[in-house]
């Protein structure tokens, strides 16, 4: 069932990797990160030695039984021979089943241990210890551990990427009914990564994965039916798939606040990418820490929030969050008081759950008119935590907080009107407050809006709107964490690992991942696809991103058709895409490109006046376009002025002048070369 030789190879690879990892490279960062309670290596060793002892004692018992059997044979005791044979056979079967059960239990325990280590790990070495446990559990036939190992090999976790080995594991798992393996094989087939490019086979894999409950497969099928990718476009089918996933996501958000993930666009300029606002630069973080320790209250609250939920590339660290909030609260910050109340209300590693303490801090913040504190008091009264349930008081506090623009309070008001909690049901008011909260990205508000549009509750039913809203909720799932790992892999130069992760997210319908995958493919730095397949696949992904409203992708499609990248040259199609980007999104680059095509009559009717107008619009739209537009307009005006003068208005007078023979076929460029220095001199004199 399991490829043992492959797993042994994986163990060897991981063992070598652990030995060769240079932990010193991460020391600087790791010193600043909180080290929570971790599973010690001694605990793992004790557990493994316990397993070895069990195996040793089991071997001793087997040896004794074998010895006893030999003695019985030697003495030739044949009393009730047939019955003894039956008993012996049953005993052997029982022992075999017991051994198999012990073997399975060992694998389960190792897998659980690995999960625990992985969840609590803060260093690269600890994560690799977790994967060693997964490898051992996989060798014992644990399917979940095998899935973990296959994922690690596919995505290149810890610098070990072996797509061929990953596919072998996935195929083995798929035969055992693993829906996760079905999804992975569908993904690889859809891109032709390590497998034959086959969209029909991919669709089959996704269908089986979805039937088995894999939410990634459900999202992928939802996106395919929404967009009509290799299936007939069907909004209702897309709605059913997205709703399944959104219901799960909403349930997790109701239990605990989700962690938003930053989605960095690789298409941004390199200088912006290196200090991307989505990821906090380490030097800037150190500077913020310095300011916080010096008493900057606003920075203290900001750092507390970042550590509370793990934002901007920082790890979630409740101890650091509490540290900064306490400092700011001592200085009188109402926000800090409210966040401390929130921590006590929910309970975490740094503070125990305590309703009375939560009430105290929420009240302190609310007395200063703080929206978060008012919302916190509303929650206590709504759920009856530390105080009797009082919907009237809850409504009062939610309304006050909502008036101050706090989206969570707006959602709670909407929910009270939607569910009729303590008040009459009012779907119109529910819709109003859900909509207000959704404008700030409140996930549960978006979910309930989708629910209302899907069922036509309080609003005219709209399948398309419901699907778009459900899609937004689904994209908040834990799988979005791959955006961070993919980005860091890209920054570290691990292009193949980054591409595989972005490509999976792109298949799930994430627009940012689609443009990032296309950007990497366009660079031709990846090695997991043949070079000749990269431009066609990039064009496909640019097109999917453009359909979702990415104007940069729309311009890129125009470029591909203009230059013939991954497709045949088609000026008319290029002009169509440039027109969409220029007219709908007012993109300066598209305006400039379209102006050039009008100037030269490429794919469209030549129109100098329209070209001139588009050049001017490009300059007005973007300051960056001023210089290119200046030279383009100078060339256009000079060329056509000289042609008008020399070849139309004064044809009879200047008939003797043969510029093509005298200066050459590119005489217009020669004249422009003379005019440009003259204009520069005039501009200098003017400024002087």
Automatic annotation (TrEMBL):
Keyword vocabulary terms for this entry: Signal
SMART domains, per the entry: SEL1
UniProt-listed GO biological process terms: ERAD pathway
Entry protein name: SEL1L2 adaptor subunit of SYVN1 ubiquitin ligase
Species: Gorilla gorilla gorilla
Signal sequence range: 1-23
Domain of life the protein comes from: Eukaryota
SUPFAM superfamilies associated with the record: HCP-like (SSF81901)
InterPro entries: Sel1-like, Sel1_AlgK, TPR-like_helical_dom_sf
GO cellular component, one term: endoplasmic reticulum membrane
Family, similarity comment: Belongs to the sel-1 family.
């Amino acid at each position: 069932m399991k490829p043992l030789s492959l797993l042994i190879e994986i163990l060897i690879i991981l063992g070598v990797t652990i030995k060769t990892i240079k932990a010193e490279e991460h020391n600087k960062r790791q010193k600043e990160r909180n080290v929570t309670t971790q599973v010690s290596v001694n605990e793992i060793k004790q557990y493994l030695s316990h397993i070895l002892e069990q195996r040793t004692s089991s071997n001793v018992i087997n040896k004794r039984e074998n010895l006893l059997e030999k003695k019985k044979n030697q003495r030739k005791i044949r009393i009730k021979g047939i019955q003894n044979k039956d008993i012996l056979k049953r005993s052997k079967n029982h022992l075999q089943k017991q051994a198999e059960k012990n073997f399975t239990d060992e694998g389960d325990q190792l897998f659980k241990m690995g999960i625990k280590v992985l969840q609590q790990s803060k260093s690269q070495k600890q994560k690799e210890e977790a994967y060693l446990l997964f490898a051992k559990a996989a060798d014992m036939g644990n399917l979940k551990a095998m899935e973990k190992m296959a994922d690690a090999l596919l995505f290149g976790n810890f610098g070990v990427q072996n797509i061929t080995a990953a596919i072998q594991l996935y195929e083995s798992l798929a035969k055992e009914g693993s829906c996760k393996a079905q999804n992975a094989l569908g993904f690889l087939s859809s891109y032709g990564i390590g497998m034959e490019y086959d969209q029909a086979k991919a669709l089959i894999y996704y269908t089986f994965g979805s039937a088995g409950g894999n939410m990634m497969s459900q999202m992928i099928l939802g996106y395919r039916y929404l967009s009509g990718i290799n299936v007939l476009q069907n909004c209702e089918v897309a709605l059913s798939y997205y709703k399944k996933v959104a219901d799960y996501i909403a349930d997790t958000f109701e239990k605990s606040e989700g962690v938003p993930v930053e989605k960095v666009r690789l298409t941004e300029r390199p200088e912006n990418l290196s200090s991307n606002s989505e990821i906090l630069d380490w030097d800037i973080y150190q500077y913020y820490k310095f300011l916080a320790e010096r008493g900057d209250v606003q920075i203290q609250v900001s750092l507390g929030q970042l550590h509370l939920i793990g934002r901007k590339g920082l790890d979630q660290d409740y101890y650091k969050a509490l540290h900064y909030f306490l400092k700011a609260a001592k200085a009188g910050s109402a926000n800090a008081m409210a966040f401390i109340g929130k921590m006590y209300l929910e309970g975490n590693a740094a503070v125990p759950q305590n309703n009375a303490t939560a009430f105290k801090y929420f009240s302190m913040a609310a007395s200063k008119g703080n929206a978060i504190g008012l919302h916190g008091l509303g929650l206590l009264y709504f759920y009856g935590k530390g105080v009797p349930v009082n919907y009237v008081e809850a409504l009062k506090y939610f309304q006050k907080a909502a008036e101050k623009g706090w989206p969570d309070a707006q959602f709670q008001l909407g929910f009270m009107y939607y569910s009729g909690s303590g008040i009459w049901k009012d779907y119109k008011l529910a819709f109003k407050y859900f909509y207000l909260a959704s404008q700030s990205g409140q996930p549960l508000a978006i979910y309930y809006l989708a629910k209302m549009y899907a069922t036509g509750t309080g609003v005219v039913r709209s399948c398309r709107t419901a699907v778009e809203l459900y899609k937004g909720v689904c994209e908040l799932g834990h799988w979005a964490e791959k955006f961070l790992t993919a980005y860091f892999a890209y920054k570290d130069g691990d292009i193949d690992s980054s591409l595989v992760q972005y490509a999976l997210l792109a298949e799930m319908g994430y627009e940012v991942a689609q443009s990032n995958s296309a950007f990497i493919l366009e660079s031709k730095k990846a090695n997991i696809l043949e070079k000749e397949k990269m431009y066609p696949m990039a064009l496909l992904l640019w097109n999917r991103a453009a359909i979702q409203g990415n104007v940069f992708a729309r311009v890129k499609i125009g470029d591909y058709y203009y230059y013939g990248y991954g497709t045949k040259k088609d000026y008319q199609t290029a002009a169509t895409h440039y027109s969409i980007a220029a007219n709908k999104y007012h993109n300066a680059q598209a305006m400039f490109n379209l102006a050039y095509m009008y100037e030269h009559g490429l794919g469209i009717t030549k129109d100098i006046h329209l070209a001139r107008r588009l050049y001017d619009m490009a300059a007005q739209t973007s300051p960056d376009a001023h210089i290119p537009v200046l030279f383009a307009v100078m060339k256009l005006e000079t060329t056509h002025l000289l042609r008008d003068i020399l070849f139309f208005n004064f044809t009879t007078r200047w008939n003797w002048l043969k510029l093509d023979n005298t200066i050459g076929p590119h005489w217009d460029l020669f004249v422009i070369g003379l005019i440009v220095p003259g204009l520069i001199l005039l501009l200098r004199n003017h400024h002087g």
